[in-house]
Amino acid sequence: xxxxxxxxxxxxxxxxxxxxxxxxxxxxxxxxxxxxxxxxxxxxxxxxxxxxxxxxxxxxxxxxxxxxxxxxxxxxxxxxxxxxxxxxxxxxxxxxxxxxxxxxxxxxxxxxxxxxxxxxxxxxxxxxxxxxxxxxxxxxxxxxxxxxxxxxxxxxxxxxxxxxxxxxxxxxxxxxxxxxxxxxxxxxxxxxxxxxxxxxxxxxxxxxxxxxxxxxxxxxxxxxxxxxxxxxxxxxxxxxxxxxxxxxxxxxxxxxxxxxxxxxxxxxxxxxxxxxxxxxxxxxxxxxxxxxxxxxxxxxxxxxxxxxxxxxxxxxxxxxxxxxxxxxxxxxxxxxxxxxxxxxxxxxxxxxxxxxxxxxxxxxxxxxxxxxxxxxxxxxxxxxxxxxxxxxxxxxxxxxxxxxxxxxxxxxxxxxxxxxxxxxxxxxxxxxxxxxxxxxxxxxxxxxxxxxxxxxxxxxxxxxxxxxxxxxxxxxxxxxxxxxxxxxxxxxxxxxxxxxxxxxxxxxxxxxxxxxxxxxxxxxxxxxxxxxxxxxxxxxxxxxxxxxxxxxxxxxxxxxxxxxxxxxx
Amino acid sequence: xxxxxxxxxxxxxxxxxxxxxxxxxxxxxxxxxxxxxxxxxxxxxxxxxxxxxxxxxxxxxxxxxxxxxxxxxxxxxxxxxxxxxxxxxxxxxxxxxxxxxxxxxxxxxxxxxxxxxxxxxxxxxxxxxxxxxxxxxxxxxxxxxxxxxxxxxxxxxxxxxxxxxxxxxxxxxxxxxxxxxxxxxxxxxxxxxxxxxxxxxxxxxxxxxxxxxxxxxxxxxxxxxxxxxxxxxxxxxxxxxxxxxxxxxxxxxxxxxxxxxxxxxxxxxxxxxxxxxxxxxxxxxxxxxxxxxxxxxxxxxxxxxxxxxxxxxxxxxxxxxxxxxxxxxxxxxxxxxxxxxxxxxxxxxxxxxxxxxxxxxxxxxxxxxxxxxxxxxxxxxxxxxxxxxxxxxxxxxxxxxxxxxxxxxxxxxxxxxxxxxxxxxxxxxxxxxxxxxxxxxxxxxxxxxxxxxxxxxxxxxxxxxxxxxxxxxxxxxxxxxxxxxxxxxxxxxxxxxxxxxxxxxxxxxxxxxxxxxxxxxxxxxxxxxxxxxxxxxxxxxxxxxxxxxxxxxxxxxxxxxxxxxxxxx
Lengths: 569, 569
Known about the structure:
The structure is a homodimer.
Chain A: H1 7-10, H2 17-41, H3 47-63, E1 71-72, H4 75-88, H5 93-116, H6 128-150, H7 160-172, H8 176-202, H9 207-215, H10 218-231, H11 260-289, H12 295-311, E2 318-319, H13 321-329, H14 336-351, H15 353-356, H16 361-373, H17 378-387, H18 389-405, H19 407-427, E3 431-436, E4 443-445, E5 457-462, H20 471-483, E6 490-494, H21 503-518, E7 522-526, H22 530-538, H23 541-544, E8 549-550, H24 553-557
Parallel strand pairs in A: 5-6, 6-7, 7-8
Antiparallel strand pairs in A: 1-2, 3-4, 3-5
Helix pairs in contact in A: 2-3, 2-13, 2-14, 2-16, 3-12, 3-14, 4-11, 5-11, 5-12, 6-7, 6-16, 6-17, 6-18, 6-19, 8-9, 8-16, 11-12, 11-13, 17-18, 18-19
C-alpha cells in the first residue's frame, strides 16, 4: 500500500504541519491575483487561471519530488500561449479556452513521453545565455503588454509589432482612475521589494519573516483594493476583472479538435520552456537541502500536471521561481502545502468569485510588472561577454529574435545559433605545436611555454575530435605546418584531445599517411585514446600503423618504435 | 596583360597540344549523347543539354584551376533538377526550360557568393557516408528512371513513388525494337567496361590506351546507331530523340521570374551538391600531380559556369568524375582541351542537329545506366559499419530518405542526422578514471591499463569540451563517481581533452567547486589548455582556483600546490 503513496506522505512528521499551513495561506493569497492576471495575459477569460491553479498543484504533489515547487500559471508560459493563440486567431473566448486547454494537454503528453523515453537531457540544449536572453526579452514584452491595462487601456499582443500600437493608443486615452490604482500598487510593490525587508529587520523582525513579507507584498494590495473599490463606489470608473464565473472543476475533453495539427509545434516549444523553467526551480530548491534531482521524473510530473490542467479547462502551467520561493520561505516542508493551497483555491473559486469581480485590471497589471521586472537580466549578458563572445551573441540574438520575431521563433533561433556556433568551432579546430617542458615528460604549446624542440621532429596536437566537418581542414592545416618546416622527417600527432574519429576522418588519415610516406616523412600517433584505437583497428589502420603508435608523446618524440601492444592489458 | 590571362595559357607548352586535341575529340563524342540524355533526365528538351555543354566549358577553362575538369550536365544534378521541376509543375517545355535556367543562375550566384565569403568549408558538412548514401540512392533512382525508355516507354519521375508506376506501365507495353537497341547497347557497354581494357592489353595495347578505349566505349555505340537507324529505316519503329532545334547560343534572361522565391531553396541544395561533386573531382585530379586545391576558387569558377549556362538557356552543371577521367586519360594537359571541346560542341550544334534526331532514346538510356551504375557504393556502407555505427546509420538514413522522400529531402535529412549524432555524442561525454603508468609520468584509464591509484585521490578525465549541452550531465557523472569513492579528499580533473568551455559550463564548475568545498573535498585542475585558462581568468575563476591549477596530472596527483604562475612564459 505505502509503495503507492508519495514518500513525503508516508514519512510525514507532525512538526511540518505549521509551516505547510502557513505556506498554503500565503501562496493562495498570491496565487489568486496571479492566476487571474496570467490568464488575461494569455488572452483568455480570467477564470481559466483559477482552474489552472488547482489541479496541477494536486497532481504535482502526488507525483513530483520537490517539497516546495508550486506548479501553476506562469508569466512566460502565458506569453507563449498568447503568441500561439494570436497566430491561430480563435473565433471567441470559448475557442480560445479550448485551444489553450489543448496546448496544455498536448505539451503535457509530450513531457510525459519525453520523461518515459528518458529525454530529460533535452533541456540541456538551451544554454544559460540563450535562456537568459529569452527570459529577459519575454519579461520585457510582458512589462510592455501590462503597461496597456496599467494606463486603463485594452488589448495588446505578444510581439513588439502589436504591442507598440496598443501602447500608443493607451497613452493617448489614459484613464486616470485606473492609472491611479495601478500606479499606486506599482509604487507600493516596488518600495516593498526594495525596502520592506530591510525596514522590517531594522524594526526587529527576523530576517526570514522580513523576506517573506517583502515577497508577499501583493497580498495586502489585492485585499486593500478589493475593499476600496466597492467602498468608494468606483465599479464603473475603471476597467475591472468583472464576474469570474467559476464553479467546481470537472474534467472534460476540450473542443476544437480539428486544429490539433497546428498546435503540435507550439505545444512542443511550450513543453520545452516549461520544463526548463520548472527544472531550474527544482534544482534551486534541492541544492541547499542536498537532495538529488531526477530530471526524467520531473518531466513526467510536470507533464501529468499539464494533462490535468488541460482536462479541467485550464492553460499550460509550470513551476515558477517566484511562487515557489514564497512557498519555501513561508515554511512549506512538504507537498502537503500544495495540497492545502489547492483546497483553499477551491474554496475561493466556490465562494469568492463575486468578490474578485471588483479587482481593477490595472492593479493586476502592476503585480505582473513587479513579478517579471526582475527577470530582465542584462548581468547575464555581461557575464557571457566576459567569458565567451559566442555566448554573448547567443544572448543578443535570442533577445532580439524574441522581441522582433516573437517568443517561439526567438527560442528556436537561440537554440540553433548556439548549436551552430558549437559546430562551427568544432569544424575549425585549434592545432598546437608542442615542445617538451625541460626536465619533465610533459609537452605543451611552443607559443605559450618555454619548451625544447627538435628540428627533425614536429609534434602537433589537434584540439578536437576528428570528424567529417573538420577532416579536410585538419589535413590542410597539417600540410601547412609541414610546409613551414622542410627539415621535418617525423610528424608526431598527439591525439590526447581526439575523443572520437569517424569514417570520413579515418579516410583522411589514411590518405594523409600515404602522401607523407611518399615524401619520406614518418607519421606517428601518440596518446591515442581507447575508443579511437578501436576505430583504427576496425577500420584496418591499426596494422597499418603498427610500430608507430606510442602511449606517450615523450616516447614518440624520442627515436624508437612504439607498438599497439602497449595498449593491451 | 599576362596577369589577366590564366596561368595555363601564359605557360602553355607546345608538347601539350597533341594530348589536348585528342582529349577534346574523345570528350566531345562522349558529351553529345550525355548532354542530350541528362537534359531528358532533368525533364527538359534535349537541346538544353547541348547549350549547357558549351558555355560552362569555356568559363571554367578561363577561371578554374584544374587542368582536366570537365564541367557540364551531370546525372545527379539532372535528377535534382527533375525533382525540383516536378514539384513546380511547369506549364510546358518553355516554362520548364526557363525554370531550369533560373536554377542554374541562382545556384551559380550562390556559389560565387559562398566563394567570395570564403565559405568553401560548407562542403565539409556532408560526411563521406552521407554523401555515399546520397549518391548511391540517386544512382539507383536514375537507373530505375532509365529502365522506362530502355523498355521503349515514356515518362517517369524522380522519386520511387512516381517511378514504379511508370516502370510497371513500361513493362506491360514493352516496345521490342527499342528494347533490342537499348539492350544491345547495354550489353556492349557492360562487356566493354568489364573486359575491353583487359582484352586490349592482352592484344598488345598500352594499358593507358586500353583504359581509355574502355571508357570511351559509348562513342562507337552512338556512332553505330546513328548509321543503323536510317539504314534499316527504323525511324518510326522506336522512340527517338527527334529534331534537336539548336543554333548558336545567345545570352538572354530566362522568363518566369515570378516563381523565383520557390527556386531559392532547391537552388541552394543543387549548389551544395554540385560543389561537393566538383570539388571531389578537382581533388582527385590534383592529388597525383601534387597540386594544391583552393576550394574557394573552385566555388567561384563553378558558380560562374552555372551563371553562364543559366544565361545561355541551359540547366545546372557541375564537374563530374566520369567525363573528367576520360578527359585526363585521353591526354588533356591543360584547359585548352576544354576550350577545344567547346568549339567542337558548337560545330555539332550548328551542323549535327539533324543527324542526332535519329538517336534512339533506349540507347541514350543504356549509356546513362552504365555511367551511373558504378555510383551505387554499398562498399562504403560496409566500411562505415566497421568504423562507426553512427556513420553507417547516416548512410542508411540518407539512402532511405532519398529513395522514399526524394533527393532534396534526403540530403537535408542526411546532413541533419550526422550533425545531430555528433552533437548527441558531445552531449554525453565519456569520463575516464585515470591512474599512473608505473614508472612513468603518464596517466591512463584504470580500466584499460595496469596503473597505480591512491585511495584519497580520484583522477577523472572528461573526454569532451565543456559546454551547455553536456554541463549538467558531466556534473551528475562527477557526483556519481565521487559517491562510489567515499574516501576521496582530492578530485583531480584532467582537462587535456577539454578544448573549450562556455558560460554555462563555467557556472557549473563554480557551483560544483562550492559544493565540493562544503563537503571537504579539494577540486584541482590539471593540464588546462590555454584557451580554457583564458576563459577561467575572464570569468573570475582563475583567482578562485589559485594554487589548484597544475600543469601536469602527475604534479596534481602528488600532494602540493600548483599555480597559474606556471602558465606564464
